Predict the 3D structure of the following.
Amino acid sequence: MKDTNLTQKRKNEILTIVNQILRIAKFNGRSIDVVDLANKNGFSVFGLKEDAEIDGAIIGRKDKDILNIIAYKKNLSEKENRFIIAHELGHFFLHFDNEKFNFGGTFAYAYHDHRNLSKSLEEEADFFAANLLMPKDIFLEEVKKIGELARYKIGQNLLSDIFNVTPECIKLRLGETDAF
Ligand SMILES: [Zn+2]
């Protein structure tokens, strides 16, 4: 998750999709269950061996009778893995029909190191993940409660526990949402 070059138009399109997902999930909490969301969309979620070369992966196919998989690396923290799973879900919701994502028509692959994908597709998946895990309105509400502390590590750690994402994610999100 970093500063993006995405156009406002594309951001709005992604936000519309995220909001739809949150509405369907009847989500009104602070920490969405990304594994459950993946399961409900036909994906099984697996931990990869610690020496796996990738942090995360999504393997999907449009016909339903084969296993659709989202994988994450076992030795990362739960907070890190939630972002990876949300990022991979972003590829599913945003790019499943994208040609660059589609090998031979039926398979759609992505790996977290994404040799085959353009930077902008990666940024889109990151933007999707940040908004899924820390929806702007809810995020700013929590920042407001914490007040000035959110500028400091202690406040950011608190937000990190509330949203179940890493403090680094929180820091970036504070910048992205113009929280101050
Ligand atoms: Zn990716």
In short: The longest strand covers residues 43-48. Helices lie at 8-24, 34-40, 78-95, 119-133, 136-146, 153-163, 167-176. The two ends are 19 Å apart (CA to CA).
